[in-house]
Amino acid sequence: MSNGFGLVVRFELRDQEATAGFDDLVARTLPGIKEHEAGTLAYVVHSVPGEPNVRVFYELYADRAAFDAHERQPHTVHFLAEREQYLSTVQVIFLQAETGKGPVTA
């Protein structure tokens, strides 16, 4: 498999009000990702049944350089600064593609 690079991020939000604010921040950030990041292959935000104040992001990039470019984008820099006010915890798991089926292939 090629150099696909990804991560899973679990956000636990403080309360229902914080979750609504976080969801709005995400909604304002996504257009920049869609329009300006060709190397971002997937950026999917999930809710978790039974855990209304949790969001899980799955992010897949063409390679580490694409992820680094994502982190430098103005919309991402803004998101990273603003998200802190909504969070109680965040867990980041970095992934390196080894095998499978998807947009990153051998």
Automatic annotation (TrEMBL):
Domain of life assignment: Bacteria
InterPro entries in the cross-refs: ABM_dom, Dimeric_a/b-barrel
Presence of keyword Nuclease: no
Entry annotated with the keyword Manganese: no
GO molecular function: monooxygenase activity
Coiled coil: none
Pfam families in the record: ABM
Protein name: Quinol monooxygenase YgiN
UniProt organism field: Kitasatospora kifunensis
